[in-house]
Each structure stands twice: as structure tokens, then as C-alpha cells.
Amino acid sequence: MAAARWKRLEAGQQPVRACTLCTRHRSHGTTDTAWVHRPPHRLVCPRHHQAAPDPRLTSPIQAWTAPELTAVHYAHQRLQRHPRAATAWTTARAISTRWYDHQQHLTHRWHTRLGQLCATNPHLATAGSASPALLARDLVIYPETVALARALATLPFSAHRPANGALALIAQRLGLPRFTLAANDPLRAYLTHARR
Fold this sequence. Notes:
- The protein is mainly alpha-helical.
- The protein contains 9 helices and 5 strands; from the N terminus they run E-H-E-E-E-E-H-H-H-H-H-H-H-H.
- The chain has helices at residues 20-26, 68-79, 85-101, 107-120, 132-135, 137-140, 142-154, 163-174, 186-194; strands at residues 16-17, 35-36, 44-45, 50-51, 61-62.
- It has a 3-stranded antiparallel β-sheet.
- Helix 2 runs parallel beside helix 7, helix 3 packs across helix 7 and helix 7 packs antiparallel against helix 8 (163-174).
């Protein structure tokens, strides 16, 4: 006798709401709700400036108040052509998520962007038990994650390249005047490991 076993998917594997305007167009106006398994490089609908970074959201986030989110979508598309794109993206996302969760390096920029998104998306505050900071995290850190992934994918690691040269390049890509890493910073660990 066959038995079905159900397993709850991790948040990154769960479907999210598709852009409501794209869905309405493709369904010829019959619905505005569709669920998709969105690849990481399609976080924002560049045409309608909508995003659904978390499956717990019942409505997409209107991202037009933070135009850098749509602009970075195209940079992420270009990054996808690089042979080290997948590894660089996974690493950059883990690093930037840790920075966000521990309020490191880009905190002021991320708080500003979160405030912009919350101001135009009041449903973020009423989306159940999760906070807006958690529900919108992937979207808030998206531009810096793409910039970091691009730097990591294109950074020429060699025994002759000083680590501070790599930090200077990464700081430039992130738009930071200077960049100092603590001993337990995940980027420091990555740079140390990758240079071996």
C-alpha cells in the first residue's frame, strides 16, 4: 500500500505570489493571483515594480519607492552569465543576510529602504506573526547582495593579491567609503578560505 508523506518546505523552496499585473495580463483579466517558484534572480518584476520575497505575504510588495530594486534586477540578470554566479550568489546572500540580522555594515541604508517599503506597503505590518524586517529582508538586502555577488564572482583570488585589495574592491562595489571586518565576519572567513 502506498503512503503519502508531506514535508513542509523551507521558505526559499515555497512558492510566492507572482506579480499581480503580469498574472492579470497573462490570464486575460480572469485572475490576479498566481503562485510561482521564483528563481533568486527574479525577485522583482521590472515592469510593474512588484516583489514577493516571502511566502507568508498575502500581497506582493510594491517596490516603486525604492527604484534601486528594479535597477539591480538587470544587474542580477547580467551576473547570471558569469560561470561562478551561482556560488557567488549563494555566498553573498548568506553574508548579507548575516549582516542584516546582526545589523552590520549597511544598517542605515537597509533601515531606510525598509522604511520606504513599509510606508507604501502597510500589509507588511499586518502579515501575521513575522515582522516586516523579516518578511522584506530578501528585498531590502537585494541590491547589496547582487553587488557583493558580482564582486565575489569577478574577484581574482591569488596568493599574490592582498586581502585588503579585495576589501577595497568590495567596499567600492557596495558604495562604502571604507570597510573593516571583525574577526568573526563571514566575509572575512570567505576571503580567507577562498584565497587558500
